[in-house]
Amino acid sequence: VASILEKLLRSESKDDALLALQIAFDLVENEHQAFLMSVGDHLPAPKTRPVEASTTQNENTAGDVPMTDETPSQTTEYETDPADAVYAERLTKVKGILSGETSIQLTLQFLYSHNKSDLLILKTIKQSVEMRNSVCHSATIYANAIMHAGTTVDTFLRENLDWLSRATNWAKFSATAA
């Protein structure tokens, strides 16, 4: 499998490179982690890293200048052959896919961008719940957890730390886990 992926990545055809990426995504979806690690280990390490000099220069002009002794001409020494640079970039993408990092990032990005939860609902529930009613307190925490599952949004929890600290026993564990 690794040799087939390598052949597809080395090809000059964009379709072959896209096929290699699709195969990598299919492997991640259907195979065991040990097999994926084995395929990733059998792929060679990129000999050159993709050149990002143009993006680095654009970032430097807009913000702070990094404190390095290198000049921009020294950072382009890694690129020797355009075909090798393209291959290295493709190989890096396939290794990221096989490690699962790309899938996780894409899933997180999708969930975060499609999060349509309304924090006003949670605030209204919190204000209408009695302080001593642990069942309603837990229900509000669970509602927040379900509304923001997988999105990394923790605004409600951070804004209401004092309210969350009033939880005891199982409710405290649930609030922390949410």
Q: Helix and strand layout, with pairings?
A:
Blueprint: H1 2-10, H2 14-30, H3 33-42, H4 53-62, H5 72-75, H6 82-99, H7 101-113, H8 119-128, H9 134-147, H10 155-159, H11 161-164, H12 169-177
Helix pairs in contact: 1-2, 2-6, 3-6
Describe this structure in words.
It is a single chain. With 178 residues, the protein is mostly helical. The protein has two domains: 2-112, no CATH class; 119-177. It is 69% helix and 0% strand. It contains twelve helices and no strands. α2 (14-30) packs parallel to α6 (82-99) and α3 runs antiparallel to α6. The chain is elongated, with a radius of gyration of 24 Å.
Structural class: mainly alpha
Poorly predicted ranges: 53-67, 69-77
Order of helices and strands: HHHHHHHHHHHH
**Beta-strand segment tally:** 0
Distance between the termini: 40 Å
Overall average pLDDT: 81
Q: What are the key terms here?
A:
ARM-like; 12 helices; single chain; repeat; proteasome; 69% helix; 26S proteasome non-ATPase regulatory subunit 1-like protein B; 0% strand; 2 domains; mainly alpha; 178 residues
Can you describe this structure in just a few lines?
The chain has 178 residues and is mainly alpha-helical. The chain has helices at residues 2-10, 14-30, 33-42, 53-62, 72-75, 82-99, 101-113, 119-128, 134-147, 155-159, 161-164, 169-177.
